[in-house]
Structures are given as C-alpha cells and as structure tokens.
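Customer escalation, tier 2.

The customer says the design service returned an amino acid string that "doesn't look like it belongs to this structure." They asked us to rerun it and document both sides in this ticket. The original structure tokens are below, unchanged.
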C-alpha cells in the first residue's frame, strides 16, 4: 500500500502567461507525480472559487496564497493517507476548506492535489490513468474515445475581435475514429486559415488557438467555417458539422441581449428565432449556453423550440455543480452538460456530476479552459469517465498536447 509521503506545490505560468498552480506528490514507494490546473476567462457565477493573491505582483493574478494553502494546510493533513483512497482524500480537503465554494483554500489548489493523487494512484496501481479512473464510474465503457470538437474561430471573452459568440466549433461525424476526426480537424483548420488569408482577414489566433477575425456579423463566422469544411475536401453535414458556444452571459444587458447582427437588442423570443434560423441554415449540431446562466425562461424557450433538433448544452448554467445540474434537469432545459473539473474543485465531485448526467441520459462534454497548461490529465479524465465529446480548442499551439494524448490512448486501446 503506497501512502502519501510528501506534497509540494509551486506557481507556474499558464498559456496566457498568468500564474497557476502545480502540485507534486511523492509516495512511500518512490513514485512521483505532478499536475497543474487551468483557468477560465469566461466563468460562470456558480463556479468554485479560484484563489488569487490580488496584489501588485502579476497584476493581482499570483497564486502564492493557494500554493501556501497546499504546502502548509493540506499537505500535513494528507501525509500518510493511502493514495488509492481518492474519495477519502478529496473529502478531507473539502472538509478542511469548510466552505460551499472552496473559497478558503481555493479550488485551484485543491484540484491540483486531487489530480496529482489520481495520477499517482494510477501509477502505483500499474494501470493506465483512464482505466484507473473507471473504478469510479458505473457501467462498462469499452474502448470509447470522445469525439473532439475543434474551436476554429473565437470571439467573446476569448478574443480581441468583433464577434460576440465565443466559439465556432467543427464537429466530426460520430462514425469516424478519433484519428480520422483529428485529421479532419487539422485539415479544416488549415483550410480556414487559407480562406481568411484570401479575404484579407486577420489570421492571428486567440486564447484557445482558434482564429480571431474581425467579421461584420456573427453569422459570417458560421459561413466561413462551412466554406472551410467544404474546401478541405469534406462534406458539410455529412463528414463534419458546426457547433456554437454562444456564452450568452457575455452579451446580456438586463433583460435583453446585444449582439452586432442587428442594431436593436434581442429579447428572448428574438434570440430563439435567431438560433432557429442558424440551425436551419447551418445544420447546427450543438449550441452551448444560448442564454445567460439565470435566464431560465430563455432556456425553456430554446429547448422547447429546437431541443429535439440539436444538442442544447449547459456550461455557465451548470458549472459542473450537482445542484445546478439538478435545476437544469428539473426545468428540462438541456440535452448535454459541460464537465470542467476546475469548476467544482475535485476529481470525485466532477465524476459524480458526470454520473448524474449519464444516468439521466445527457450527453457529456469534457472541456479544457482558455488558460491551459501542458498537463494532459483532462484527456485521460475524459476517456476515463466515458465522455461523448471533448473540447480542447484548436488543433494548434499548446492545445495539441491534449489531442496528442488522446492519440496515444487510442493506440493503447487498440493494443489491449
């Protein structure tokens, strides 16, 4: 039985150049594992608390307080615990924190420990991490690799451009293998770059590696994405589909929504009609956060209108929180849910939310954050819990570490 011998946390930088936290765990059998956590720019109100220093250093974004909480408070409490007892370890950290949203110790510090424990537990068990995580999941999941959703055009809080919608996604057909899906995503990404260049549009990239063109209206982002699919040699709405992460929190103004597609703000009914038109024109497979996180009436209207024709997904609405998910289920407003471990703060809690989603028939989409690290834990996690889809950004920059890890897992599964 391997026990926790030492825990050491430190401050590192994420993909946006902001500090984040990395924690290393040493076991009594000599195994050493480390894990780092991401940070989002578009955050739901109900996410677990990310602890920042809030002083001049790094413009207030430092995480030395969270680091100190791990090293001085969490580490002594966990020392000597069995690394295989993930649930007990996570529960201990939740109890030490003692708040509803982990605001005392910081969800970023807690999650860095939780992930490191899972990695170390897998290694000492001589199991691949995805298979190790499956002990916490009900049912048989087989050799399923989630379908990747590639974020190829970015707007909203992810980009300094004119687009209101946050992510324009390309989704490969479910009939394709992961390796085929990855090839499709890369091909469309390169095709899109050529289309933008030919139109003298900006080909600089945003937070998640997707392009950030200054387009006249949001619908043009869909039109260019469709063109890129077709010019890459794939069939639109057969080989590849389009999805949207609207992130409507970012453009809500009181009871209306302001986007550049028209001068007059959209009320709930107007926005439903816009989505209905976009669904008809672009065969949208997926719409995430079409209304703001507390606009339950808007969510009910959109789900009633097109919930049987496309996948309506909650991210800011749910924030990987079991209580928020239950509200969404009670109100019958989602067909899928985003799972982000750093929204809740521990691996066992994130898995518990995904299990509720699976039991109630929702699609599970595991997502990274806009501020990422080179840690590939989220890829193993997605496979481990049997996610239907993953969102890891564009197939470029630091994001490729996650996609490459899924390729490795696919190969490992083929050799089992």
């Amino acid at each position: 039985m391997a026990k926790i011998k030492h825990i050491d946390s430190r401050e590192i930088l994420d993909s946006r150049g902001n500090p984040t936290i990395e924690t290393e765990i040493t076991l009594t059998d000599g195994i050493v594992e480390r894990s780092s956590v991401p940070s989002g720019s578009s955050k739901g109100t109900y996410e677990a608390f990310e602890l920042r220093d809030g002083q001049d250093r790094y413009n207030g974004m430092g995480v030395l307080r969270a680091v100190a909480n791990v090293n001085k408070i969490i580490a002594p409490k966990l020392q000597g615990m069995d690394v295989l007892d993930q649930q007990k370890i996570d529960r201990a950290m939740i109890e030490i924190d003692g708040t509803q949203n982990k605001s005392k110790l910081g969800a970023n510090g807690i999650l860095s420990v939780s992930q490191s424990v899972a990695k170390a537990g897998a290694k000492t068990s001589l199991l691949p991490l995805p298979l190790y995580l499956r002990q916490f999941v009900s049912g048989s999941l087989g050799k399923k690799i989630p379908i990747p959703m590639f974020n190829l055009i970015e707007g909203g809080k992810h980009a300094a451009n004119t687009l209101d919608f946050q992510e324009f996604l390309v989704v490969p057909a479910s009939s394709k293998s992961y390796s085929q899906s990855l090839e499709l995503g890369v091909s469309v990404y390169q095709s899109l770059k050529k289309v933008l260049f030919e139109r003298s549009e900006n080909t600089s990239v945003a937070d998640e590696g997707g392009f950030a063109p200054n387009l006249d209206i949001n619908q043009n982002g869909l039109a260019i994405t469709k063109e890129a699919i077709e010019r890459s040699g794939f069939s639109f709405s057969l080989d590849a589909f389009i999805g949207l992460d609207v992130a409507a929190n970012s453009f809500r103004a009181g009871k209306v929504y302001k986007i550049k597609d028209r001068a007059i703000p959209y009320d709930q009914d107007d926005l439903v009609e816009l989505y209905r038109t976009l669904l008809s024109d672009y065969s949208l497979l997926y719409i995430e956060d079409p209304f703001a996180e507390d606009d339950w009436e808007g969510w009910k209207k959109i789900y009633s209108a097109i919930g049987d024709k496309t996948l309506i997904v909650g991210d800011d609405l749910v924030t990987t929180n079991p209580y928020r998910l239950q509200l969404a289920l009670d109100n019958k407003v989602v067909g899928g849910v985003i799972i982000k471990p750093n929204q809740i703060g521990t691996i066992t809690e994130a898995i518990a939310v995904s299990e509720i989603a699976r039991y109630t028939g929702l699609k599970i989409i595991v997502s990274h954050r806009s501020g990422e690290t080179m840690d590939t834990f989220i890829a193993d996690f997605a496979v481990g819990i049997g996610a239907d889809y993953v969102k890891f950004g564009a197939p470029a920059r630091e994001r490729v570490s996650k996609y490459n890890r899924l390729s490795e897992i696919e190969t490992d599964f083929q050799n089992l």
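Tier 2 assessment: The sequence is consistent with the input. The chain has a mean pLDDT of 97. The CA atoms of residues 269 and 301 lie 8 Å apart. Sent an explanation to the customer and offered a walkthrough call.
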